[in-house]
Amino acid sequence: MERDIKKIISNFRITGEFADYEKVVTGHINDSYYIKTNSTDHPGYFLQWINNYIFKDVDGLMNNITLVTRHLADKLAMHPELAFKVLEIIPTLQGDKYYHQAEGQFWRLYKFIDNSHGYDVVENSQIAYEGGKAFGIFMSLLADLPAGRLTETIPDFHNLEKRLDTFYNSLNINPVHRSGSIPEEINFVRTRAEQMLTIPALIKEGKIPMRITHNDTKFNNILFDDSNHAMCIVDLDTVMPGSILFDFGDAIRTGANTAAEDEKDLSKVDINLPIYEAYTQGFIEKTHHTLTKVEIDNLAFSARFMTFMIGLRFLTDFLDGDLYFRTHYPEHNLDRARVQFRLVEAMESHADKMHAIVLQSITE
Ligand code: GN1
Ligand code: MG
């Protein structure tokens, strides 16, 4: 479908007039656009096409985001000292939370957060520390929002048992005949699965509390201001009940990898321990009052767990013929999976040190 961005924008309640737009290259799921207006006193907007193949219940999704952003806005009004911001949904002319353009074509608009930037590569420990605090604050502020009010936007999103079933199923069906090319990766999954399943087992037994979590804590979902204070969390599509381990783990997977998520040269992939340590300190500073012993015991391991699970999802999508994640070349998902698995290995060899850093941060 032709995307006439100006026309799409005309359906929303914006201030000023549409002037121009730029496609923003970020994320593997939705499509994003920066919208400029001709108004000098207004920063612009952030338009997103919602991937309806992945987010089947757009109403539920946008209700969640509305609840979460309102709750955060109320909380932040009481805590100006945090100097934190929250995304703001711009309604359509009819007052709806999103614009339904045509069958399967859904759009939403946010106010653009001015003077902000994110990090695909975490440049130093101070930035990692700020990032850790930001996701800690985010989760703490949502602690008193009743979880039952949120829908599960993607059912079983971080359910490793289900993810493994799906993987083995794709392996059996082998729809695009790719399984023959990945014996090492299949073996990697087989040899790690049992250990990784200890987390879902603890969740099932009720030993790990469900909280409201972000569930997609890529480091670049943290926005920083001009003085590098982390001041806003974005990408709220998967905010729903989850474990704190998911949020900690995914931030380490993305923030403390010495290489890109899809690096071809695996020798560049490693865990950056100083970045890990600084993030851990920031995160624990803001969450230690609520962490349980089982969570603390598994925090360092959660980085491996999440890296393994997301690697498994990339590998599954490779087997399926790249239906889920946006790819830029045929082996893209396989390259991403390989990086994740290499990072799991690197974390395995630093497991004791990573756990010691958690314990040390708790007592500081
Ligand atoms: C997807 O689109 P993006 O980059 O925000 C995915 C995450 C993965 C991530 C891997 C809804 O997030 O779960 O961790 O790619 N989001 C969804 O880079 O599946
Ligand atoms: Mg996302």
Note down, in words, how this protein is organized.
The chain has helices spanning 5-9, 58-78, 125-141, 160-173, 183-196, 198-204, 244-255, 273-287, 293-320, 332-349, 351-363; strands at 18-24, 31-37, 45-50, 89-90, 99-102, 105-111, 211-213, 222-224, 230-233, 240-242. It is an alpha+beta fold and 364 residues long. The strands form 3 sheets. Strands 1, 2, 3, 4, 5 and 6 form a 6-stranded antiparallel β-sheet that branches. Strands 7-10 form a two-stranded antiparallel ribbon. Strand 8 and strand 9 (230-233) form a beta hairpin. Helix 9 (293-320) packs across helix 11. It has 11 helices and 10 strands. The relative contact order is 0.13. The model has no long low-confidence stretch (mean pLDDT 97). The radius of gyration is 20 Å and the shape is globular. The chain starts with a helix and ends with a helix. Magnesium ion (MG) binds at residues 27, 29, 216, 235, 237.
